[in-house]
Amino acid sequence: MSRIVGIDLGTTNSLIAYMDDGAPRVIPNPDGVTKVPSIVGMTDNGLIVGDPAKAHLTRDPARTIYSVKRFMGKGLADVSDELKYFPYTLHEKNGVIRIEIGEKTYSPPQVSAMILKELKRRAEEFLKEDISKAVITVPAYFNDSQRQATKDAGMIAGLEVLRIINEPTAAALAYGLQKKTQGIIAIYDLGGGTFDISILKLKDGIFEVLATNGDTHLGGDDFDQRLIDVVVQEITDTQGINVQEQPDLVQVIRMEAERAKVRLSEDTETTLVVELPNGKYEKTLTREAVESLVMDLVERTLAPCRSALKDAGLQAHQIDEVVLVGGSTRMPLVRSKVEELFGTQPHSELNPDEVVALGAAVQADILGGHNKEILLLDVTPLSLGIETMGGVMSALIRRNTTIPTSAKEMFTTYVDGQTSVDIHILQGERELVKDNRSLARFQLKMPPLPAGVPRVEVTFLIDANGILHVTARDIRTSEAQSVQVKPSHGLSDDEVEGMIRDSFKFAEEDIKTRQVIEARTEANAIIVATQKALTRASNLISDKEKSGIQRVMQQLGETQKGDDHRAIRAGIAEAEKETHHLAEVLMDATLKEALESKNVSEFVK
Amino acid sequence: MVQLTMPELSEDLFPMTTHHHHHHEAVAGSRELPMARSMCWHCQSEVTGEYLCGQCVKVQPLSKELDYFACFKIPRLLNIDEQQLEQTYHELSRTFHPDFYSTKDESEKTISLGNSAFLNSAYRTLKDPIQRVEYLIRLEAGAVKDIRSNPPADLFEEILELQEDMESFRNLSSDADSTEQANLRQKLQREREHLEARQAEMEKALRAKYHEWDTLQSQNADPGEARDQKNAVLRSMQEILSNRTYICNMVSELFETTG
To answer: Which of the residues in chain A have pLDDT under 50?
Structure first.
């Protein structure tokens, strides 16, 4: 059985973790950095993902995609309020958002797949083996379409997604495993773009989720936006610059606002600086002032907490421990509000950025059959139902029902000879169809008989991923009927297939870009090192040799600007040959120096 | 998106819970063995283990006729040991949960999914005292026959009056004389407290019936006579339950109206 990794596919940052001898570990890059910014940049030379893409964001905002998680499983109408915050053009095809970059369009699962591939590559490099199986986390409050979109992203990235697991539950796994906790715990998870609250009962290795609630459109990004709005307004008013017309400036402000917010978790005062074409904009911010800017947003998290408590049949004081997850819980304001609500000091011993990925690795270990002690029993966050007469939703499976779970419904005809019945599947807590999420539609075939005689039983099953499966059976004949379900906001199987094929094309471009970037970096390093060496060795080599080296370096400098990594490599080889003698001379000189200094120091001793 | 088809998920392999009372085909009386088949679906040998084949250790589908009480190996009583129930739930979850079948073949995955879904419904139903008795009534009385579709006579007047008061309160809300609104709100809140008290009374009465039922179940009386007595208890529980439903609905409507 090949290794299964755990992935936290976040709104702002993503991480990948694995199980190392019984303990979950996050995989760092060679520099020891564990977080991969969930940002994808489309450059002329192909794709860049993560930190390089973050740098790209201020240079080329129109071709850099961030916070794509907010678009997963959504239609255009769902995000209309947020459109103004995104510098790229969005449109919709078959109920799914498409992001327009240049002449190409990308679905959100495709963009997420690019991030997943980067994580996969990182893990493969670190573990020195192929990775093809993963557990991916999603916000607990994600609906069916959003979960399916995440699964599609995994497929497009060449990963078999063995399980979609809820972020707060993953955090509970990591936390419970480390602390050996028993009792009732609440996980308060405030990330970059989403908020979740989950209440669990931990007993003898069973992690039973009692209730979950949340808001899939509330997170640190929204805090940043409040600050951005203030800064943009001030710059527009005082500097006579129309900031909104300069997307690159907006992105600079976005980054500075985020940094200032982060600093204010430690300091009580900070200065936000933005470089403008005609000077500098500076603003002193106190923690208090920023807290009052976002107070209502933080308070918005409390209502879902109360609902979750109610659904779990518990009072706030019955919660034994509260665990904080997600970068936004570093804010002192968030901590004090949580403490106020639950009447207990929240825990944050585990790194709130990493705990979700760690939990995903624990779940991967369970699925791999390596851990029989722990079992996670999760719930479906939203009620599932169907449309009935008068545009009303009739619930079949209530929210907070432990999954897997199933429900059956019998359907018949109203008119003699009617041959089909249309069924509309919904998710949500409201009474009217229009206020709930449309998941899918399908047509049930009926035998042409008098009204009321046909009887077709439909089974709605929610699996352990929180994803719905529909089957139908004619009661009279006992025959199974195939159901062609058309998702309201999802990619069709054909589309996913197409995107998998495209992703191989991207992969080729990807590798090319990577090779060019690597060769270029190496060439630059050689040029810099050679210049230094030439200064040091000015008296040690001939002028002829010197000018020869200068010429080769100049050529290399030209070649590395191009996109041909083979040419750059050839230039590097040429440079190495040309500087071989110089290196030897320098080595001898250094050796001599070292020996002399050693003698001196020994003499002194 | 919805996964298109799962052909293996057929009724022939395992049972699934019926959420909808009207379609429930209850099994009265007889005590089935937990397993539907005495032969393993995989290796065709006789199943000697309880849930797993003794020969090839494949998980076996739960019987179609299995009821929730039998699934938890407890008699059809209404006062049950909730801690024991939880413990059995945890044990069975460790046997059936899909997490432990992730590396197994498709058939086993499907069986584990079905068994798990059934187990979860069984636990959810039995854990809650109200759902437990509703389920028992369906099980013991066959299809639900005499559900009352009208509110009970003594509640009828009260409900009508309340509906009117709520209607006028809603109409006031927009542009209202605040004292009138406050008075009406107070009245509605009093009514709600009154109804909540009645609900508590009903639940107490129901609990007394639980005891009556359990006593009858444990006696070795003449089957015919016991059946009549049992049916009488079931009917009175059903009556309390349907009255309770009206009260519950009114209480939550009052909550929504007055905030």
So the answer is: 600-605
Q: What is the DSSP letter of B175?
A: S
- Terminal CA-CA length for chain A: 62
- Domain carrying residue B219: 153-258
Question: Is A8 an active-site residue?
Answer: yes
Put simply, whether B83 touches A (Cβ < 8 Å) is no
**Could B23 and A408 be called an inter-chain contact, meaning their C-beta atoms sit closer than 8 Å?**
yes
Contacts of A493 in chain B (CB under 8 A): 4
CA distance B150 to A578: 99
What's the CATH fold of domain A4-218+301-377? Nucleotidyltransferase; domain 5 (3.30.420)
A72 versus B31: which is more confidently predicted? A72
The yes or no reply on domain A382-490 and CATH 2.60.34.10 is: yes
| Length of chain A counted residue by residue | 605
- Say whether B98 and A463 touch across the interface (CB within 8 A): yes
Q: Is residue B12 part of a domain?
A: no
User: How many other CB atoms are found less than 10 A from the CB of residue A8?
Assistant: 32
pLDDT for the residue A595: 65
Length of chain B: 259
B259 contacts chain A (CB < 8 A): no
The torsion angle over the Cα atoms of residues A218, A224, A225 and A230, rounded to 10 degrees, is: 140
B4, part of any domain = no
Report residue A29 as tokens. Answer: 């890059």
Residue A445, φ and ψ in degrees, nearest 5: -80, 140
Please report, for chain A, the start and end positions of each structural domain, with discontinuous segments joined by +: 4-218+301-377, 220-296, 382-490, 495-604
Class of domain A495-604: mainly alpha
Q: Is A100 a catalytic residue?
A: no
Nearest by CB to A397, which of B4, B19, B99? Answer: B19
Separation between Cα atoms, residue A581 and residue A575, nearest integer Å:
11
- Residue B33 pLDDT: 43
Strands A133-138 and A4-9: parallel
Beta bridge partners of B136: none
pLDDT one-digit tens code per residue, A31-44: 899 999 999 998 87
How many Cα atoms sit within 13 Å of B97 on the Cβ side? 26
Contact A461 B9 (CB under 8 A): yes
Number of domains in chain B: 2
Contact assignment for A401 to B90 by CB distance below 8 Å? no
**pLDDT value of residue B2:** 44
Rounded to a whole number of angstroms, the CA Rg of chain B reads 24
**Given this model, what pLDDT does residue B151 score?**
62
Is the interface score ipTM higher than 0.90?
no
Domain A220-296: assigned CATH number: 3.90.640.10
Q: Check if A425 contacts B (Cβ < 8 Å).
A: yes
Query: Is residue B13 in some structural domain?
Result: no
